[in-house]
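R.M. (postdoc): so does anyone remember the format we settled on? I'll just put the structure tokens first.
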């Protein structure tokens, strides 16, 4: 009987490749405030400035997971800035300065105010029409006197 148990088949060499880390990129405005954040899973490296890399949802889904809070305040002010390729939370003073720069919204007139304005405009139009009628009557009367036979 053949004893084939002494022969161990040669095992193919298994290559273990580690996954690539995700890179986190940000886009900034001209003042260095972070306006957008994304990861290499969704955008190319040219998209923005790399600030970090790693594994897990924090890096893979950086848009909502990288920073502990959203990148904008409830007022729509950027909460983070880029300093020497590092993201930093902006101070309350910096955020407050941006809030103070928000223009005061123009309050639209109420319906009552618009109705009053329309009434005044109709009166002005009627006055202009009445004046035009008066001028035409005067011209007709003068023409009758000048050209009377």
């Amino acid at each position: 009987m053949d004893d084939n148990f002494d022969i161990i088949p040669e095992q193919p060499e298994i290559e273990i490749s580690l996954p690539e880390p995700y890179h986190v990129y940000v886009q900034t405005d001209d003042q260095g405030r972070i306006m957008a954040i994304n990861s290499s899973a969704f955008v190319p490296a040219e998209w923005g400035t790399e600030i970090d890399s790693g594994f897990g949802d924090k890096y893979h889904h950086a848009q909502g997971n990288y920073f502990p809070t959203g990148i904008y305040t409830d007022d729509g002010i950027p909460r983070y800035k880029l300093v020497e390729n590092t993201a930093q939370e902006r101070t309350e003073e910096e955020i407050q300065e941006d809030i103070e720069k928000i223009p005061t919204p123009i309050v639209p007139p109420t319906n009552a105010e618009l109705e009053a304005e329309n009434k005044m405009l109709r009166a002005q139009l009627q006055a202009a029409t009445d004046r035009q009628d008066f001028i035409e009557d005067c011209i007709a009367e003068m023409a009758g006197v000048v050209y009377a036979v």
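R.M.: ...and that's the designed sequence above, right after the tokens. Also worth knowing: The mean pLDDT is 90. Residues 26 and 37 are 4 Å apart (CA to CA).
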